[in-house]
Amino acid sequence: MVLxxxxxxxxxxxxHRLFLAEGFQVKSAQDGKEAQEAIKGTAPEIVILDLMLxxxxxxxxxxxxxQAFPNVPVIVLSxxxxxxxxxxxxxxxxxxxxTKPFSPRELLARVQAAIRRINKPQPVKSYSFGTVNVDxxxxxxxxxxxxxxLTAHEFKLLRFMLENPERVLSREELLNHVWGYNCxxxxxxxxxxxxxxxxxxxxxxxxxxxxxTMHGMGYKFVAQT
Length: 225
What we know:
The structure is a single chain. This protein is of the alpha/beta class. The protein has 2 domains: 118 residues, Response regulator (Rossmann fold), CATH 3.40.50; 96 residues, Arc Repressor Mutant, subunit A (Orthogonal Bundle), CATH 1.10.10. The chain is built from 8 helices and 11 strands. Strands 2-1-3-4-5 form a 5-stranded parallel sheet, sandwiched between helices. Strands 6-7-8-9 form a 4-stranded antiparallel sheet, with no helix packed on it. Strand 3, helix 3 and strand 4 form a beta-alpha-beta unit. Helix 6 crosses helix 7 and helix 6 crosses helix 8. It is elongated, with a radius of gyration of 23 Å.
């Protein structure tokens, strides 16, 4: 849910239509009191906050919202363009600042970027599955207590799969995130790397329990079997 806190009815309507068209649920408030009512019982996914509000200061509202929902992005929308105000708002917890007049497309892009940031999987530092233990900080792996030598790309591939468990990962996605290819070569790079990981980490590489093939789609990591 996107919470729009804006006292200008025209801008409220524009933002309401903008986010609805992108599939978001939208709630609107024209001041701090209405904003508090809007978030009772449900946390917003993101907040669009105008600074110049009747009653409650936008700065105070920004601070209280971040205290109540520290992981919810707050994007400030204001006609104030002073650098000092921007710095102050960032210190109060605002995640971004868009100056009026604004481009709806730009604002939408910033909203989507903020949501992607908070939904990004946390980096895996260490992980265990089956008889395998992996320490990504030390770049060390063991299987049944014995050291396993993995290459840098094997570590990167394994880490990306562990950060996205139970999700089918296409070869194109793996190439892009692990190898950084912008255009996908017609090679069996991923297949060969997966085969090597299975040989090193699976107890039965020909019948893998954890690094599974999803025929016609890609691969999937399964922790428990």
